[in-house]
Write a sequence for this structure.
């Protein structure tokens, strides 16, 4: 189906932060499959684990015990607020599970009227029908029938609007601690704490979508860990969890998951042995304190260098946003044109809402590679400035 606006580039192999086209040209990859290839391309540890497991067992039904699933679930719960995990294949599936978990929680408590999910403008939670309704982006809803009932959308960051909206039919609040597609906007710490307190006071569940901003991309294992007193009840993760292999998960406290009993939910492929083996290996790297410290070091380098870039090109770059290695550049020049300027320099960057581009490199990017990325960004800015002057 013609649903993608594709760039005429085809890659045949990758190594670390490099992608190589079918005709042998190398590109520095600061997209990482949209924050997926967190350990780079063809990471030796992941390749070895995948090969070993592929020779043993790929798939069995979830009617059987899957030891790798239990091990990865324990690793996730040991590292987080959660007590239980459900495995799927994608972020969208993790979001669907989170929504169902929140509504089933209130049903199990004898309050079936509590179904409303409060979300925010600029959010992106995936492409399934439930996920697009949770986000409420008109561009993604158009043509798919009337909006589903039970979803409320509020302005990003407006706590007064949240307080006014939470009521007797509210099931949960869902948000990305750092928005990805919405333009790399991070929630203020005090607002996240206030939302957590409001949820506690009203018995409303708090759902975090850390599909893009989680799993060490912020410099801590999860972005919400930067804010004391803002822990969620339910969290959706995916992307970096499989390092490029399809793995998604919904994490929850035992209390929040009280309604998810036998028959409440399921997946054919979710949690299969092949995915679990890769997920275990990926998570084992991402949880390492020294790995997260490296992310913070490279992020600090980018922050410093991008500040100088903004000063040199105020006519091109308006603002720097995000957290860790989820970096957004709000532009004064059209972002899609700027992405092409970067590609002309053999640098791959992602688009974003609010006329932003995003840097989402592998988390093991070196300082030398970050310096190379900055040189390419500088040349892209110079091209954007020249084109703007010529057009004027």
């Amino acid at each position: 189906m013609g649903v993608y606006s594709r760039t005429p580039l085809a890659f045949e192999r990758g190594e670390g932060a490099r992608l190589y086209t079918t005709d042998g040209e190398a590109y520095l990859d600061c997209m990482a499959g949209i924050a997926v290839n967190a350990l780079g391309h063809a990471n030796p540890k992941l390749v070895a684990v995948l090969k070993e497991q592929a020779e043993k067992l790929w798939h069995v039904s979830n009617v059987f015990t899957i030891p790798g699933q239990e091990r990865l679930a324990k690793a996730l719960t040991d590292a987080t607020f959660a007590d239980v995990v459900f495995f799927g294949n994608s972020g969208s599936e993790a979001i669907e599970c989170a929504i169902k978990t929140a509504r089933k929680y209130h049903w199990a408590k004898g309050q079936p009227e509590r179904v409303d999910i409060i979300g925010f403008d600029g959010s992106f939670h995936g492409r399934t029908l439930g996920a697009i309704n949770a986000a409420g982006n008109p561009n993604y809803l158009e043509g798919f029938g009337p909006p589903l009932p039970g979803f409320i959308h509020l302005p990003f960051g407006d706590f007064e609007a949240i307080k006014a909206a939470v009521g007797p039919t509210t099931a949960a609040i869902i948000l990305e601690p750092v928005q990805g597609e919405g333009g790399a906007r991070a929630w203020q710490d005090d607002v996240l704490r206030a939302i957590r307190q409001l949820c506690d006071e009203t018995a409303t569940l708090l759902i975090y979508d850390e599909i893009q901003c989680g799993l060490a991309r912020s410099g801590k294992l999860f972005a919400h860990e930067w804010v004391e007193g803002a822990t969620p009840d339910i969290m959706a993760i995916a992307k970096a969890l499989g390092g490029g292999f399809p793995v998604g998960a919904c994490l929850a406290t035992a209390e929040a998951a009280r309604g998810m009993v036998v028959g409440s939910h399921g997946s054919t492929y979710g949690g299969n042995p092949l995915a679990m083996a890769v997920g275990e290996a990926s998570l084992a790297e991402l949880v390492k304190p020294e790995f997260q410290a490296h992310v913070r070091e490279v992020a600090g380098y980018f922050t410093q260098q991008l500040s100088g870039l903004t000063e040199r090109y105020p006519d091109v770059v308006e603002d720097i946003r995000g957290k860790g290695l989820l970096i957004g550049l709000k532009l004064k020049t059209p972002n899609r044109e700027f992405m092409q300027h970067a590609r002309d320099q053999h640098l791959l960057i992602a688009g974003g809402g609010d006329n932003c581009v995003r840097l989402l490199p592998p988390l093991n990017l070196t300082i030398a590679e970050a310096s190379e990325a900055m040189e390419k960004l500088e040349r892209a800015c110079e091209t954007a400035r020249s084109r703007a002057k010529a057009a004027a």
